[in-house]
């Protein structure tokens, strides 16, 4: 009896293993076809969807959907309507991408901690951004928060120079505070390698086109400028 169950279990495992290899081969072939059709882009990931014979593909950060042979490509928002409450499948993936992008690039952001710093917020900002200054005033009202600010100079010709001056300062958090409060950096900084290009790539990956852009640690985008009470509500809902 025991031997029979062992044989059955072995057969089942063999089928699972064979199915996994077949799926892996199919995914590899799909990746090859897509890479050939979009040579200037990178196939970041391929995920078999549990419905419709669709595959979710992330092409250089952009979410698209295709069939097993890559004969058709669909862009846009995909909803799963099978449950009573519709799911925005595309938004869920976008949030995961954002969370991975943000948590893997802390070294490229200015870090500011208030209180115990348990609650984490990410912002993309330009030193010449008026609404960024308003956001800074709101964040100053909050406690027990860690803010990672990515400098993205996109608004004015001198935004890049100001961003480098802030990043290369001895105390980046203090320099950013001076810029947001007084509109200038008091101390002169020595030239250094500022991660402005990396931040621009991260912003592009997240489809950020303006500043400020505010995110929670789980990748949820809160929008642009928000008053402190709205951010507190977002933390409470998370």
Describe the structure.
With 238 residues, the protein is an alpha+beta fold. The chain has 2 domains: 71 residues, Nuclear Transport Factor 2, Chain: A; 132 residues, Glutaredoxin, CATH 3.40.30. It contains 7 helices and 11 strands. 24% of the residues are buried. About 8% of the residues have low confidence.
Shape, principal axes of CA atoms: globular
- Overall pLDDT, averaged? 87
Specify the biggest β-sheet. Answer: 5 strands, mixed
Q: Order the strands across the largest sheet as they lie in space.
A: 7-9-8-10-11
CATH superfamily of the largest domain: Glutaredoxin
The number of domains is 2
State which percent range the strand residues make up: 15-25%
Number of strands: 11
Structural class: alpha+beta
* Fold-level CATH name of the largest domain: Glutaredoxin
Keywords for this structure?
238 residues; 2 domains; Nuclear Transport Factor 2, Chain: A; Glutaredoxin; 7 helices; alpha+beta; 42% helix; five-stranded mixed sheet; 21% strand; four-stranded antiparallel sheet
């Amino acid at each position: 009896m025991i031997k029979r169950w062992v044989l059955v279990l072995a057969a089942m495992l063999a089928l699972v293993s064979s199915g996994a290899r077949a799926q892996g081969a199919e995914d590899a072939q799909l990746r090859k076809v897509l890479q050939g059709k979009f040579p200037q882009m990178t196939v970041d990931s391929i995920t078999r969807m549990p419905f419709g014979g669709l595959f979710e593909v992330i092409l250089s950060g952009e979410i698209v959907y295709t069939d097993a042979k890559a004969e058709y490509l669909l862009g846009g928002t995909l909803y799963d309507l099978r449950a009573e409450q519709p799911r925005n499948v595309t938004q869920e993936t976008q949030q995961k991408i954002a969370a991975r992008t943000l948590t893997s690039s802390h070294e490229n952001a200015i870090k500011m901690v208030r209180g115990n710093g348990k609650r984490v917020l990410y912002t993309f900002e330009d030193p010449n951004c008026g609404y960024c200054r308003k956001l800074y005033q709101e964040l100053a009202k909050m406690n027990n928060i860690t803010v990672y600010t990515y400098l993205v100079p996109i608004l004015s010709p001198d935004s890049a120079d100001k961003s480098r001056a802030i990043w290369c300062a001895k105390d980046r958090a203090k320099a950013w505070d001076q810029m947001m409060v007084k509109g200038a950096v008091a101390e002169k900084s020595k030239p250094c390698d500022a991660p402005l290009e990396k931040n621009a790539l991260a912003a592009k990956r997240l489809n950020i086109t303006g500043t400020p852009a505010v995110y929670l640690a789980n990748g949820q985008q809160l929008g642009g400028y928000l008053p402190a009470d709205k951010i507190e509500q977002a933390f409470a809902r998370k």
